[in-house]
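Please, does this match?
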Amino acid sequence: MLLELNIKDFAIIDNLHLTFHRLFNVFTGETGAGKSIIIDAVSALLGGKIGAEYVRAGCERASVEGVFSLETLLPPGGNGFQPLARTAEGEEEAAAVGNTLYEALEQVENQEGRRLERLQADLSSADARVALASLLQEYGLQPEDGTLILSRDIFRSGRTVSRINGRAVSQHVLQQVASWLIDIHGQSEHLSLLRPEQHVNFLDRYAELLPLREQLAARVSEWRTVRKNLQQLMQAERDESRRAEFLRFEIEEIEKAELQPGEIEELERERKVLSNAERMRELCALVYGAIKGSELASDLTQSALDLLRSAARALNELARLDKSLAEQEANLDEAIYRLEDVAAAISSYETDIEDDPARLAEIEERLDLIARLKRKYGATIEEILRRAEEDRQELDRIVNREEHIHRLEQQDQQLRREIGRIAQELSERRRAAAARLASAMEEQLDDLNMKRARFAVEILQEPDPEGVPATINGQPQMFYACDATGIDRIQFLIAPNPGEPFKPLTKIASGGETSRLMLALKTILARADATPTLIFDEIDSGISGRSGQVVAEKLWMLTRNHQVICVTHLPQIAAFADLHFNVNKQVLGERTITIVNELRPEQRVREIAHIMGGNVSEFSLKSAEELLARSQLWKENWLRQVESQTASQTTEQTASRDASQAQAR
């Protein structure tokens, strides 16, 4: 819901900060005071079209910022805001139900590696929590302390900058996120009910069909994967033939090389030895000569062993004189033996060193071959061998193409039958729910002084030989196009006046009539509509008397599932407000500005008296007090009825669960 709204240098608004109630918020004021400007600012915040003309004169930019709480985002078919509870202090409180957006965000984050098509399916989900969570995840946006902060700056040049939680985003992203947060009734560009693609979601939530639809979506996702693999296998045979030859060439080239892991290191070691044979023989002679002496050395030059043996004789005599030196004598003898072993090993190693140009050339050729294979197939021998294995698997699929195709075709047929069965059941239950929805809608329109208006839900199917089989309305089985929502293409239709044909909601003119139609739909679809905040503008156009009271009651009933904000000229609607704002226009220092005041109880009485009769009198003040008292009494009675119904439903559910458990035992 919308917690706070900040507007700065927007049209005739200088600097405005509003904090909203979680239930019913009302704006009243004289025509032209700036009420519609506030709605225009919210529209800009939702990504609507906005121009430089809205930047206040003498300023370089206008800015709008909204703080939204996500904690009360409705679960599908949930109750949203609980009926008001009274605390010990008498303050009104509204408890939000569980199953909030956080659970959906956690589910999305736990599936970070899922397929793109699954993410796209979530973005079009009928479950608002899943759709919004997936949207935020897709764009890397994270709620902070349960809130999203949307902002938009409009510059004098006409350029705009949109941000979510301080991060710059495109206008399109702002629109996508905001569409799940607010509906503005009276401005169709932000109205979810005027987006035909959303109608199937409304109907399915109204009919409580989401579990069945999720089951269908899972099977459709599996079917799409099978279809994709099948199409890949059934591409042109000539292309596959060329591909098979290419794969055989790669496999043969790699297998012919007979590569071994670790081979490169061993070859490079051997190459180094062969390339330095002469120098290594010289070094061996030097080492051997230093240890045991060389034939070329003069008689005066003593080897290391000669010197050590002289030292050993001296130490042996010392040890006979002092037995404490026996250990040192043994150590020196051991060193002489070890040095003799080193000399023997070096002599043997020198004997084995030989020039082998043929072997060196062979190694160079082998390393060159491996280098060419690395450039073509992978950076290491392991990667080259893995490439060969992948090629063999792909070649196997091509060679055994017919077998694979036959298996996938069987899976395709089986999935089509299963999807068709689920889609047919969905369609049948949607038709039954559509009839109930149409009847309920016409009752609502009757209450709203549109007594002869008619409402219908259009449910159509698109024949498609490649689709799924289903029987519709007792007709012979046919194949229909099917997506994750099923085979039905759903659209809400309305005939506002007698003698007029049904038309899509998108064709209805904007204004007060549209707002009333939307109010009727919102009342019926309150539990199905997941948009947390509803804004009604111009809803009281052409309404007065008893109709005004009915509209006020219906608006307040919406607060069980939504936060409601309303701009009105009707005292009946204003009297139901949980938070009442007065909007007026003042001239300060030869500049016109819009002032918005939150009204205290005594100020509300005077404002409603003013709306009722223009001039405030003792009689109008008394009438205003009576209207406020009647409105409060109506709300308390309605709340008691809701609480009673909720308790009754809970009792029935508990009894049903206990009976089921007893039967299971």
Notes: The CA atoms of residues 43 and 49 lie 8 Å apart. Residues 401-447 form the longest helix (47 residues).
